[in-house]
Design goal:
With 513 residues, the protein is mainly α. It has 24 helices and 9 strands. Strands 1-3-2 form a 3-stranded antiparallel β-sheet. A hairpin with an 8-residue loop joins strand 7 and strand 8. Helix 2 (26-40) runs antiparallel to helix 14 (297-309). The radius of gyration is 25 Å and the shape is globular.
Length: 513
C-alpha cells in the first residue's frame, strides 16, 4: 500500500508543508521539510531503523564509543515508547561525549604541537583542556567563538589565543582565512580580492611577543604609534570606522555572532547536520559560497532558527536532530543512492573514525595503546588507560591511526579526515599478527563470550555478536555457523576466534549504519 505522502503530488505536498510546518516541534519540522524534498524528487524515504541499529548508531555518533552488550540488552528490553529520546538524553550527559566532541573541535581548530602548526606541547594541553571544558559546560557557541576570536594573553595561560597561533602564517590574510573557514564555513580564496582585503583589516593589528619562558608567547592587539582610525568593511558590505582605542577583532566578533548575521548560524547548523547525516545541506560543509546553494534551503533555515532560539545551545541542536525520524532512518533504501543521499532519504553508512575504531578494538580485546611524543620540550606521556579519542595532540599518532585516516590537523578542513576504506586497512584487519594476538589472547569484553555456558558454543557466539555488532545473530547466520561447526568440528576456543575475526572484518562492524 502506498503511503499518504506517496499518493500526493510533490507540489501539493510542498504547499501543505509550507502552511503548517512552522507550528511543529523542531524534530517534526525537520522531518516534514526533509520528507517534502524527498517526495518532490519522486523518491521514497527509508523506513525507521531497528532498535539494535539505532542503539549502536547513536552511541558511535554521540560519544564515539561502542556500547557494551549489557547496555544493548537493557535497551532492547525497555518497552517505554520514549526510550530512544531517553537514550539520547543520557548520552549527551556522559563524559565520553566531552572527549569525543573535544576531538572533533581539535581537528577543526588545528590543535597540534609539531610542524607546520607548532603550538608546542604545553600550549596543546592547555588548549585541549579549554576546548573540552567548553564542551562539558555546553558553552553557547557564540560565546565560544567570541572567546577564540578576541582573547589576548599567554598561549600557556589564556588557551583561546592559540586559535591564532595555530594558523600557518602571521599575516592578516592567514588569520582572515582561518576565521572564515572555521566560523563562516567559507574558503576565503574564492572571495573577490577586494572583499578579502576588507576582511583582513580586522586582523591587521595582532601582535605576537615572546617571554622569558620557553616557547611562551603573548598574543594581543596592539595599536600602532600615532595610529589612525581603521576603515573596514564587514563581509556583508557594511562599512565601519574603528577607533584607535578599540580592538578590531571585538567588533568583528560582535558582527559575526549577531543573530541576524547570515553566515554564523548557517555555517555551524550546516556543519552539525553533516556530522550526523554524513553530508551538509550545503556540501561540503566548509565550502559555502553563492555557487554552492543548499539542497534544502528551508531545512537549513529551520536549523538556524532552532540554534538562535536556543541561544546557540549546540547540545540542544544535537538533541533535535538526533530525535528526528530523518536521523533514525534505516541505512537501506530502495532509491538510487547518490540522489537519495543528497536529500537525506536514508541514513548514509560511514566508516568509523580511526580513533573510534582503535578504542573499539581495545575495549573488545582488553588491550591498550602506548602513545608518546618525540618532542623533548617537554616530552609528552599518555597513560595507557587513556582512550584514543582523548588524545589532545594531533602530532601524537601511530601506524594504526595513520592507516585509518586520522587527520594531520594542518588545515582545519573537514576533508582532512579520510574515512574511505583502503586496501592497507583491509589487509591489516585480515592479516595483522597484532590483531591475531588480540583475538587469541581473548581479553576485554570478549573474555567471557568464549567461556563455557549453558547454551554451549552457540551461546558464546551469541555473546560475541552482541559485543561486536550490538545485536544477536540472525537465523541465517546461526545456521551458517552451525554448519561450519559440524563440518569442521571446531573446538569452542577456535570457533570463538574464527567468528570474532570474521565479525571485526565485516562492514557492519567497521561502519556506523
Amino acid at each position: 500500500m502506498r503511503t499518504f505522502w506517496g499518493m500526493m503530488p510533490a507540489v501539493v505536498v510542498c504547499c501543505l508543508v509550507s502552511f503548517w510546518v512552522k507550528a511543529l516541534p523542531a524534530s517534526d519540522e525537520i522531518d516534514a521539510l526533509v520528507r517534502a524534498k524527498v517526495t518532490e524528487r519522486g523518491l521514497t524515504p527509508a523506513p525507521p531503523c531497528s532498535d539494535e541499529v539505532f542503539f549502536r548508531r547513536v552511541y558511535l555518533d554521540v560519544i564515539g564509543t561502542l556500547p557494551a552488550g549489557g547496555e544493548v540488552t537493557q535497551f532492547l528490553h525497555d518497552e517505554r515508547p520514549d526510550k530512544r529520546a531517553r537514550c539520547i538524553h543520557r548520552l549527551l550527559a556522559r563524559e565520553e561525549f566531552n572527549d569525543y566532541w573535544a576531538l572533533k573541535w581539535c581537528d577543526l581548530l588545528r590543535v597540534k604541537a609539531e610542524f607546520p602548526i607548532n603550538l608546542w606541547p604545553n600550549a596543546v594541553q592547555s588548549y585541549h583542556r579549554w576546548i573540552r571544558d567548553a564542551v562539558k559546560a555546553n558553552m553557547p557557541y557564540d560565546a565560544f567563538a567570541r572567546a577564540l576570536l578576541t582573547s589576548s594573553g599567554s598561549n600557556f595561560r589564556e588557551p583561546p589565543v592559540n586559535f591564532y597561533r595555530a594558523v600557518q602564517g602571521r599575516e592578516p590574510a592567514a588569520f582572515a582565512a582561518a576565521v572564515a573557514l572555521t566560523f563562516m564555513g567559507s574558503r576565503i580564496e574564492s572571495w573577490p580580492e577586494e572583499q578579502r582585503a576588507r576582511m583582513e583589516v580586522f586582523f591587521s593589528r595582532l601582535a605576537f611577543k615572546g617571554t622569558d619562558e620557553w616557547k611562551e608567547e603573548i598574543v594581543c592587539w596592539e595599536p600602532l604609534e600615532q595610529p589612525e582610525p581603521l576603515d573596514a568593511v564587514f563581509p556583508d558590505g557594511v562599512a565601519i570606522t574603528i577607533p584607535t582605542d578599540q580592538d578590531p577583532r571585538a567588533l568583528f566578533a560582535a558582527w559575526l555572532t549577531a543573530p541576524e548575521n547570515p553566515w554564523f548560524a548557517r555555517a555551524i547548523a550546516n556543519r552539525v547536520w553533516s556530522w550526523f547525516l554524513g553530508r551538509g545541506i550545503i556540501h561540503e560543509p566548509d565550502d559555502i559560497h553563492p555557487d554552492n546553494p543548499p539542497v534544502n534551503p528551508e531545512l537549513l533555515a529551520c536549523l538556524e532558527r532552532e540554534l538562535i532560539r536556543s541561544h546557540y545551545n549546540l547540545k540542544q541542536l544535537f538533541r533535535v536532530i538526533l530525535n528526528s525520524a530523518t536521523y533514525q532512518q534505516s541505512s537501506v533504501t530502495s532509491a538510487p543512492y547518490p540522489e537519495a543521499e543528497a536529500v537525506f532519504a536514508y541514513y548514509p553508512a560511514r566508516r568509523l573514525e580511526a580513533e573510534v575504531l582503535s578504542d573499539a578494538l581495545n575495549v573488545l580485546f582488553g588491550t591498550t595503546n602506548a602513545y608518546t611524543s618525540a618532542i623533548p620540550e617537554p616530552f609528552t606521556y599518555i597513560p595507557e588507560e587513556h582512550r584514543t579519542i582523548t588524545l589532545a595532540d594531533g602530532s601524537i599518532t601511530d601506524s594504526f591511526l595513520e592507516t585509518f585516516g586520522r587527520p594531520s590537523r594542518d588545515t582545519g578542513l573537514e576533508s582532512e579526515r579520510n574515512n574511505q576504506v583502503t586496501t592497507s586497512q583491509r589487509l591489516y584487519l585480515l592479516n595483522s599478527s597484532e590483531v591475531q594476538k588480540r583475538i587469541v589472547r581473548g581479553g576485554g569484553r570478549l573474555a567471557k563470550s568464549g567461556a563455557p555456558a549453558k547454551g554451549g558454543p552457540m551461546q558464546a557466539v551469541r555473546q560475541i555478536y552482541l559485543q561486536v555488532l550490538s545485536r544477536f545473530p540472525t537465523k541465517e547466520e546461526t545456521a551458517v555457523i552451525r554448519e561450519y561447526l559440524q563440518r569442521n568440528g571446531a573446538a569452542p576456543k577456535a570457533l570463538k576466534e574464527d567468528v570474532t575475526w570474521a565479525l571485526i572484518n565485516s562492514k557492519e562492524f567497521l561502519y556506523r549504519h
